[in-house]
Structure formats: C-alpha cells, structure tokens
Write a structure and sequence with these properties.
Blueprint lengths: L2 H6 L2 H11 L1 H7 L4 H18 L1 H4 L3 H16 L11 H13 L3 H15 L7 H24 L4 H28 L19 H22 L4 H6 L6 H8 L15 H14 L3
Helix pairs in contact: 2-3, 2-4, 3-4, 3-14, 4-7, 4-9, 6-8, 8-9, 9-10, 10-11, 10-13, 11-13
C-alpha cells in the first residue's frame, strides 16, 4: 500500500479520474512497482484533468481561469496550507512534495497548456518543440523521476525524444478539436495553405516525425533499467494510433480516432513484458 493511499484514503476517486481522462497513463501506471503505483496514478489523473480543459471550454479565457486555479493551488503562496478537498489535487500535491518534482517545470507545463488554448499557432518549429517538451515531456519526466530519481543529461535527452514522439501523436489525435476551435496546432510553415485544405499531408508529416523520435527513444532505452521503459509505456500506442490516422477513409478534420480499452491495455502490457515500445 502506497504512502499516498495511507495519507488520504481517497485513491479510488483519483483512479477513476485517471481511467476516465488519461487511460494510457493509467494503464501504464498499473505496471509500475507497487510502492509508487498510486503516485503514478495521481500524476496521470492530474495530467488528465489539465488536458481535458481545452476540449471542454467554449472560450479560451474560461480555460485559462481553470488552469489558473490549479496553478494557484499547487504553486501559489497558500499551496502548503493543507487539503483542498479535491482528491486529484491533494494526491498530486503530495506526490510533488515527496518526490521533489520541479515547481518550475510544473509552471512551464501549465503555461504551455494556457498558450495552447488560444488561436495563435506556434511561431516556428523551435516553439513547437518547446511546447511539446512542456506539455508532453513534463509528465514523462515526472514519471521517470518517481520511478528512478533525478534525471541526468542522458535521461533528459531520452525525455526530449519521448516528448516529441508523444506530443506529435497527441496533435494528430486532437486535430479535429483544435480546428473546430479555430486553432492550428502547427506552425504556419507546417500547416495547409488554407483552413479548408486537406490535412492528410500534415498527418503524414506528424507520423514520420513521431516514428523517427520513437526510434530514437528505443535506441536510448537500450541497456537502461526496466523502470525507464515503464515510465514511457504510453508510447507503445503511437504505432496503432498512426495506423488508424493514416487509413484511406480517415478524414483528419472530422474523424476522432480511439482505441478500444482492451487493445490499449494489451499494447501497454506487451510493451512491459517484452521491455520494448
């Protein structure tokens, strides 16, 4: 039984949030050592709560207000005063303290989510990569720190490659939501010439770049302890996602791609058992 469960006794509410809003991270956490399993589930639940804000809100300012609430609760002057009553917030705040997760990285993560709410696309490829490192890399880095401890230079390089692979996949999957909200998730030089253009070439570029980054992750995992793979198990779903996204009948502007829960679990379990993404 983890320390988080002993202290708060409401891990089931956190588990439910993680299953609902971050199923890939939730399933990956199930294969972590028991001592940190609930900590990773709390991280998954927190990331899921933040990531679901953009699809839910009809106005970017409303999303910014929601994210500001989490920022104030976790990073504000009163963040150490006690329980908030929100199970996900309280569990994740405890995980932050016990594992000494970076408050600066968390602030960058929240800032990047706010920026993504608004219509302006990333300025260029460098800005896109910065966003991917913040939004997608931060939860992966936190997971690896929970499992293994502070990251060295090699660990940070691994997380950067994993963030790009995971983030480009996320952009491809969220494309219908972003376009419906009037947002382009890619820099102008990567986007179609007009808003009504076919996005299939962009899906092809995203797939090519994500697979190249995933190949880099696989190379860097060679010889590393098993927990490094455990921290990145959600990357095992990149290939099936892009296979669905690149089917001839798929319409990137309209169609939502999802993977059945049992298929998600099987892919992640297989990656865990064979220790390969």
């Amino acid at each position: 039984m983890s320390e988080a469960r002993d202290k708060f006794g409401n891990i089931e509410a956190v588990r439910a949030s993680a299953r609902r809003n971050a199923p890939d991270r939730y399933y990956a956490a199930l294969f972590a050592p028991p001592a940190v399993r609930d900590d990773l589930i709390a991280l998954a639940a927190f990331d899921g709560e933040i990531s679901r804000i953009a699809p839910l809100v009809s106005d970017a300012m409303l999303g910014e207000i929601r994210i500001s609430w989490w920022r104030d609760a976790l990073l504000g002057d009163n963040s150490e005063l006690g329980l908030s009553g929100n199970p996900v917030l309280d569990q994740f705040a405890d995980v932050m303290r016990r594992h000494t997760l970076s408050r600066e990285d968390l602030a960058c993560y929240l800032d990047a989510h706010v920026d993504a709410l608004f219509a302006d696309p990333p300025r260029d490829d460098a800005a896109l990569n910065q966003s991917l490192r913040a939004i997608d890399g931060t939860p992966l880095a936190f997971a690896l720190q929970i499992l293994h401890g502070p990251l060295d230079a090699a660990g940070r390089d691994l997380i950067n490659a994993a963030a790009r692979a995971s983030g480009l996949t996320r952009i491809a999957l969220e494309l219908p939501y972003a376009l419906a909200a009037g947002r382009s998730p890619l820099p102008d030089n990567r986007s179609p010439a007009s808003s009504d253009s076919d996005w299939r070439p962009q899906i092809g570029w995203l797939a090519e770049e994500a697979r190249a980054s995933l190949a880099a992750v696989r190379r860097q995992l060679a010889g590393k302890p098993r927990v490094f793979t455990t921290a990145l198990l959600k990357l095992a779903l990149i290939e099936p996602h892009f296979r669905a996204l690149q089917m001839a009948r798929h319409e990137p502007r309209r169609d939502i791609v999802d993977i059945a829960p049992l298929t998600r679990l099987w892919r992640i379990a297989r990656a865990h058992w064979i220790r390969a993404l």
